[in-house]
């Protein structure tokens, strides 16, 4: 009584890419569930970030990229159901869905969860102070401006210096919003070199190594106080823009027995993108925050191919081996390996991230035997790729060591 | 029940009672007096009801098992709870029968449990039973193995702390009560009747009931009543954990209380979350309830100590509220028959449970003023929408339009209904309390822009630049 071969949850770059691949590989019934009214996910409201060069051979801007994804999805014969929100993923490929028509139970031979990531809220960051209006994330700001023509503030403080923070800054400047300062908790900006010059060029102070020590105002923000060491400084403003600090949108896993990994806040997956439930796969930014839309697209394609291959065989049920790691590594994806010789791996490499800047030797051992090493100066917020050796899936102990040398 | 035509509340600008403060107590008092047939005006200086102490509490419907024996507080908590249990269904109000465990984490606390049990019995709360650590952990497996013993209090329940007062005031309005928001009492004089000067005009009333919470002492002063108490605001900070935590906390987890405070509670909410709090921090400021990162971290730490699995749960929300404590623990309830004024003050922590009891008590005090009221011919049928996860929500029914807030599954139909209700939200906070949109794990990342658009022009305090951005120069 399955309703589909595959149900994909999430119509952003990874979900659409997975669907395109599944169809290309001849999987007949692929349902794509998207809770918003349009496909495209987070790329829809990023009005200025170019997307699409590697996927579609040309550059698209935000909303246009979403439309391009939708066109490709329609053309490929995906069963696209927008306005359909999934309330639960359950064993045996069962998915609970709600739409304007009411509740529905769907079942498929495989489920792909590709629900992306979001920025951490003020609450999740445990920020201090009053709780006035005007403390919002980049996602909310960009959606307000792009879809609704609403400007939530005029003189905000921008918290964060990730890539998205500079995107937020540009969004502000192109919409008549003049940030009063850009602030960062870390000692230096997190984004790469040329970008960090940008605020200064625009005459916007960049304050690093500072913490938000207070937010004041009722009903709107009128001041953000920052602290550096013992000194505090008041920034008069009318909003606080929280940028970056992405976290996977993994509620479906958090509320199921599958759970999430503490390291990533996303589901644990194996080299095929398969979770602890052999019928449920995941890919894209739900795995770890955060990569670009293009990366998510390619990852979606790879997991889609692995699922297409999996459908031709009986579900893989071998118990997985966890991939472990030393501090200051923060995460490893995939964090599970299944003893399987199927060639269609979605993840040819491990993706690693460091928690902080560190110098030293990173090593991979399989059952105690070193198979890879690299010395370097490692930085947080940079992706580290380590080839996933084929024999790793036969090992009982897979561990990333880090020997710190100053 | 019939739906009578509400009588003209006050064709000549005169009210039988003016209630100052639309917190949970004021809303309950408005309902009780309207049901008794009084012409009621409810004055609130905030832009919406529940904008003071009532907006932030732990949402527990208490039994009074640990209330001071023979106190007015105990009597009114018990009466208020009883009335809530008898009316919640007809008003569409939730009741989550969680029960509570008073947990002892040391030998010393274990010794106190017996006294608490005896006090519960003395307070008329019979459904309490001592549990071994193993028995308690059978009920709540997530409790740390450090648990020494516990006392189960069956009757402690969890409710929706905002829909209840909204239902009370909505029922009062259906009976003709007038609700004036953004209206601050400036001064009142009594010359047989009250003349009340407010920030939006002058009112006349036969009696005044001060339900002003954090401003109870100041309102007494505005009314030229004797100074009988002083509000000493006590701040409480809370952390709300993701809905994933809910299944691990099936009971309210209470500490052994101290002389000063009920202590930090770990509590399932009617909305399917888990909250940890409140702190008890005295401060002079009556307006600012600000969060402190260290304190929030300490609350999370406390939660993880008692229920280790909570360490893995993401934070959905943080908030802080002020409780209208006074220099004494007891409620500060006074009646001045000569001036036809009643003060319900110092309702520092059990207001949600006691509100209906306080309202009945106020009516009882009013009756001694000697002005009989004629009850209305019928009670109008009102129900507030269900926002709790224990009853059917709108998203589970067909034709809800679409889901706007996915974290809390708030539908377009619910939002439109809230905006078109008899007392539509007066500010963004009131909107969230009526719909839950934006109160979930993403805190508006996904729906914030959509909600801002749907509520554009609905509130008296718009964001600083809530105008079209197109074509506007910087």
From TrEMBL, chain A:
Keywords of this protein's UniProt record, alphabetized?
Answer: Oxidoreductase
Location of the FAD/NAD(P)-binding domain = 5-299
User: Would you say which domain of life the source belongs to?
Assistant: Bacteria
Q: Which residues cross the membrane?
A: none
One of its Pfam families is Pyr_redox_2
* Alphabetical list of PANTHER family matching this protein: ANAEROBIC GLYCEROL-3-PHOSPHATE DEHYDROGENASE SUBUNIT B (PTHR42949)
Q: What is this protein called?
A: FAD-dependent oxidoreductase
**Organism listed in the record:** Acetobacter suratthaniensis
TrEMBL record, chain B:
- All residue ranges annotated as the BFD-like [2Fe-2S]-binding domain in the record: 403-454
Q: Which InterPro entries match?
A: BFD-like_2Fe2S-bd_dom, BFD-like_2Fe2S-bd_dom_sf, FAD-dep_OxRdtase, FAD/NAD-bd_sf, G3P_Oxidase/Oxidoreductase
Return the protein name: NAD(P)/FAD-dependent oxidoreductase
- Which SUPFAM superfamilies does the record match to this protein? FAD-linked reductases, C-terminal domain (SSF54373), FAD/NAD(P)-binding domain (SSF51905)
Alphabetically list the UniProt keywords. Oxidoreductase
Q: Which Gene3D superfamilies match?
A: BFD-like [2Fe-2S]-binding domain, D-Amino Acid Oxidase, subunit A, domain 2, FAD/NAD(P)-binding domain
Segments forming domain FAD dependent oxidoreductase: 16-361
Q: Which organism is it from?
A: Acetobacter suratthaniensis
